[in-house]
Structure formats: structure tokens, C-alpha cells
Write a structure and sequence with these properties.
Layout: H1 6-19, H2 24-31, E1 39-43, H3 47-59, E2 64-68, E3 73-75, H4 80-84, E4 94-96, H5 98-102, E5 107-109, E6 113-117, E7 122-125, E8 130-132, E9 135-138, E10 142-144, H6 168-179, E11 185-190, H7 200-215, E12 220-225, H8 233-243, E13 248-251, H9 253-257, E14 259-263, E15 268-271, E16 274-277, E17 280-283, E18 287-289, H10 291-295, E19 305-306, E20 320-322, E21 327-328, H11 336-354, E22 363-373, E23 376-387, E24 390-393, E25 399-400, H12 407-428
Parallel strand pairs: 1-2, 1-9, 2-5, 9-20, 11-12, 11-17, 12-13, 19-21
Antiparallel strand pairs: 3-4, 6-7, 7-8, 10-18, 14-15, 15-16, 22-23, 23-24, 23-25
Helix pairs in contact: 1-2, 3-11, 7-8
The chain binds flavin-adenine dinucleotide.
The site of flavin-adenine dinucleotide has 37 residues, from α3, α4, α7 and α11.
């Protein structure tokens, strides 16, 4: 493990920019001091940010890492669908930052970053404080494009919850499902690509169906989709046919699934001019990079953040690394697993850059498990690496669960789903 001194870092930053030749470690050794440390600030204590903060400290105890996150406890979106299905409680998907603070020495600040000055290398918190950094990591997740569907807004989400950021919205949707009559109709509006967690809306339909089958078996779920295909589609549809026959209907974009507007008072969803009346509407809005990334000018015209796939450094602002859902990370999906994998690579790259070394060759892994029922799991896995085309999937290294498989296979995958969750949250917050 190498310790990086802040004084040395500043000397080198100046010298390196003057000479453009000497690397950090050579200069640090030459400086020969060890007081203070290089400062990295991480914005957002979710899957990407919390992993990055932890692994920066694990890789180099000499770096001062500050993690800024408004919430004192983080509620994971993974397994929030299981809360809707009645399989998990909110408590069981809520994690604190004690281990990050006490075991890993991460300096936690519970506040919101209001402004970032990429030139001055400083940021301002909502609380008023200004902090300076040597390197900044931004992992703010997603924001919603409220204007994309007429009649929908942050206020309307109190009637038609999105539940796409876990927390009070999850509880609201769960309570609406509990209050719905037997024979009621649930509409899930699924957004266009790209969006957080590609299999998420379909796992959600499955978990809601699991709940309804037990408690309100005459009810129906209609998924109005802006897309014509979706992640693990044949596996989901096989599972629905077997476990919830006739309960879930999927309407593709081509068949009139694209939602144009809603009327929250009348509980109507307007898709390709057909008005669907519902008892419960779960509207998952169009998405963009997190608000602070947009405000800082880290996004391009797609609404997401272009980054150097080797280091996750922004292509628009040097010295700022963007990871997780906000980043355009080639073939990697917008998942918690991918965000965490990116975070580890980003931490290693930041340390290499501090040391004037070439960032290590990076590779990434992602597995998305989905539960169709408590003992029926399916998955898609991929291994990725950097090529001249950016981050691409290594052919043959991953794959999806087989369509033909005995019940015991689905049962095993359900067990792996629970195992995956426990291990990733332990790796990040444990
Ligand atoms: P987040 O984890 O959302 O973290 C962002 C953090 O940044 C938040 O805590 C927020 O408070 C903070 N923040 C935002 N702005 C600021 C600011 N200005 N200042 C300070 N802090 C700020 N992924 C999987 O791998 N497996 C799954 O099974 C899975 N299931 C899912 C199910 C559902 C229903 C959903 C919606 C998602 C699921 N995901 C899953 C996806 C996963 O939740 C995201 O991909 C992951 O959370 C992305 O990590 P992130 O760090 O980019 O964002």
C-alpha cells in the first residue's frame, strides 16, 4: 500500500503540469514527506459512491476520502420489488454508514452537493460549506424527466408512484396494492431505454403478481411498455405463464404500449390514444443522469455522462470521475452490481493517476438476478472489458439462464439471488 501525501500531491500537480513529464510517485518519493494526504471527495453514498469510497481507503490508507450523501441510511432499490411482493421489509433493505466511517475511515458528511466548480476544484454543500478536492467522484444515480409524460410530475407521483428510488415511494406503492380491491387492475408504465435496472419493471410485475395471487387473485397487471423487447423476456414470460396464468399482460411499444399522458384524478393512462383505467398505477418515468451531474455540465445531449472507459474521468470536465447509473459505460447496464464494479476500477485508476502510473487494465462483471416467485429465480450475467470500441461484453463469458430447466434450477437461482444481495451489501456497507 502506498501513502500519498497531500503536500506532495500539490507539489507534483504543479510540477507535472509545468514539466508534463514527471509522474506522481517519483515526485512523492522525491518530496519525501508524509504529512496530510491527497483528498478525494465522493458524491453519493449509493452502490457506486459507497463502494468507491470504501475501496479507495482499502487500496490506499493515505488518501483522505470524504463521502457526501444526504441520507443517514441508504435504502437499496435491489430487493425493493421484494418489499412490494411481501417477501422483505423496508428495514431489511436499509443500511447505515457506520462501517464505512468506523472501520474504513471514510469521512461522512450528510448533506447535498449543491454546486461543483470543476476549475477551482471545489464544491458547495446545501448547508453552506465549501470543500476543495484533488480528485472528485460523482455517483448521483438518476434523475427523472418529469416532462416526458403529460400530466405526470413530482406531485403526481404521490398518486401514481414511480418507486424507482427506494424509500417512501416503495411504501406508498406497497400500501396502494394492499388497499386495492380483489379484481383490481394494476398498470406498470415501463420507460424507454436507457434506464436504471433493465429487468426491474418485469421483476416488479412478477413480485406484485406473487402478492396478488395470494391475496387478490382476480386482479390483473398490465405492463404498458415504450419498448418492443425487454431483458430476459422469454424467461419472464415463461415464468408468468407457469406461475400467474392470465394475470400479467405485456403491451409492447409497437402494439400501443407507449404512454403519452396520464390523468391522475381519473386514474387514466393514455397510451397511443387508448385510455386505460386503473386502480393502481406504477409509472416509471423517463430517466437522465443525476441532477448534480446535469447541473455541473457533465452530461452530453443524451442526458448521460460521457467518460473515459479506462478511468471513468469525465470527457467534459477533467479531474471529475463519473460512475454508476449516470455514466455512459458502454455495454455495462445501469445496475447496482455494475456501479460497484465500475467504482472499484475507478478507485484503482485514481490511485494510479495520483502515483503517475498508467491505470490498470480494467474488466467488469455484472449479474442481474430477478425473482419471479420466492423459489423461482432467473439471471443474466456478463463479463466486460475495455476494447478500442469502449467497454464491451466478452462473448461467451456470461449468458442468461436456460429456458429449459428443471424446477430445482430455478430454485437454486432464487437462492443465489438472496446470496447475491447479502454479499454485495456486505461488500459495500457491511
Ligand atoms: P444510487 O445507488 O442511486 O446512489 C446515488 C446516491 O447519490 C443516492 O444515495 C443519492 O442520495 C445521492 N445523491 C444524489 N445527488 C446527490 C447530491 N447532489 N449530493 C450528495 N448526494 C447525492 N441493480 C442490481 O445490480 N441488481 C438488482 O437486483 C437491482 N434491482 C433493482 C430494482 C429496482 C426496482 C430498481 C429501481 C433498481 C434496481 N437495481 C438493481 C439498480 C440499482 O439500484 C442502480 O443501478 C444503482 O443503485 C446505481 O448506483 P448509483 O451509485 O449510480 O446510484
Amino acid at each position: 500500500m502506498k501513502n500519498i501525501t497531500r503536500r506532495a500531491f500539490l507539489k507534483i500537480a504543479g510540477a507535472a503540469s509545468a514539466t508534463g513529464v514527471l509522474g506522481y510517485s517519483a515526485m512523492a518519493r522525491a518530496a519525501g514527506t508524509n504529512k496530510g494526504s491527497a483528498r478525494v471527495i465522493v458524491v453519493g453514498g449509493g452502490f457506486g459512491g459507497a463502494t468507491c469510497a470504501r475501496y479507495l481507503r482499502r487500496l490506499d490508507q493515505g488518501i483522505a476520502v470524504t463521502l457526501i450523501e444526504p441520507s443517514v441510511k441508504f435504502i437499496t432499490c435491489p430487493f425493493s420489488n421484494l418489499v412490494l411482493g411481501g417477501l422483505r421489509t423496508m428495514d431489511s433493505i436499509t443500511h447505515d454508514y457506520n462501517a464505512l466511517k468506523q472501520i474504513h475511515g471514510v469521512n461522512m458528511i450528510h448533506d447535498t452537493v449543491d454546486r461543483i466548480d470543476p476549475v477551482g476544484k471545489k464544491l458547495t454543500l446545501k448547508g453552506g460549506k465549501t470543500l476543495t478536492y484533488d480528485s472528485l467522484v460523482v455517483s448521483p444515480g438518476i434523475d427523472f424527466n418529469w416532462a416526458a409524460i403529460e400530466g405526470y410530475s413530482e406531485k403526481a407521483a404521490q398518486v401514481m408512484p414511480h418507486a424507482w428510488k427506494a424509500g417512501p415511494q416503495t411504501v406508498l406503492l406497497r400500501n396502494q396494492l394492499k388497499a386495492m380491491k380483489n379484481g383490481g387492475k394494476v398498470i406498470i408504465v415501463s420507460p424507454p431505454n436507457p434506464f436504471r435496472c433493465p429487468p426491474g419493471p418485469y421483476e416488479r410485475a412478477s413480485m406484485i403478481a406473487h402478492y396478488l395471487k395470494q391475496h387478490k387473485p382476480r386482479s390483473k397487471i398490465v405492463i404498458l411498455d415504450a419498448k418492443d423487447k425487454f431483458s430476459k423476456q422469454p424467461l419472464f414470460q415463461d415464468g408468468w405463464k407457469k406461475l400467474y396464468p392470465g394475470m400479467i399482460e405485456w403491451v409492447s411499444g409497437a402494439k400501443g404500449g407507449t404512454t403519452q399522458g396520464v390523468d391522475v384524478k381519473k386514474m387514466l393512462v393514455d397510451a397511443d390514444l387508448v385510455k386505460h383505467k386503473a386502480d393502481v398505477v406504477n409509472l416509471i418515468p423517463h430517466q437522465t443522469a443525476g441532477k448534480i451531474a446535469v447541473k455541473t455540465g457533465l452530461v452530453d445531449k443524451t442526458g448521460w455522462c460521457p467518460v473515459d472507459p479506462k478511468t471513468f474521468e469525465s470527457k467534459l470536465h477533467a479531474g471529475i470521475h463519473v460512475i454508476g447509473d449516470s455514466a455512459i459505460a458502454g455495454a455495462l447496464p445501469k445496475s447496482g452490481f455494475a456501479a460497484s464494479s465500475e467504482a472499484k476500477m475507478c478507485a484503482a485508476a485514481i490511485i494510479a493517476l495520483f502515483n503517475g502510473e498508467t491505470p490498470p487494465e480494467n474488466s467488469f462483471v455484472n449479474t442481474c438476478y430477478s425473482l419471479i416467485a420466492p423459489r423461482y429465480g432467473i439471471s443474466v450475467a456478463g463479463v466486460y472489458r475495455n476494447t478500442e470500441k469502449g467497454i464491451t461484453e466478452i462473448e461467451g463469458a456470461g449468458g442468461v439462464s436456460p429456458r429449459e430447466a428443471p424446477d430445482s434450477f430455478r430454485e437454486d437461482e432464487a437462492k443465489y439471488t438472496f446470496g447475491w444481495y447479502e454479499s454485495i451489501v456486505a461488500d459495500i456497507w457491511g
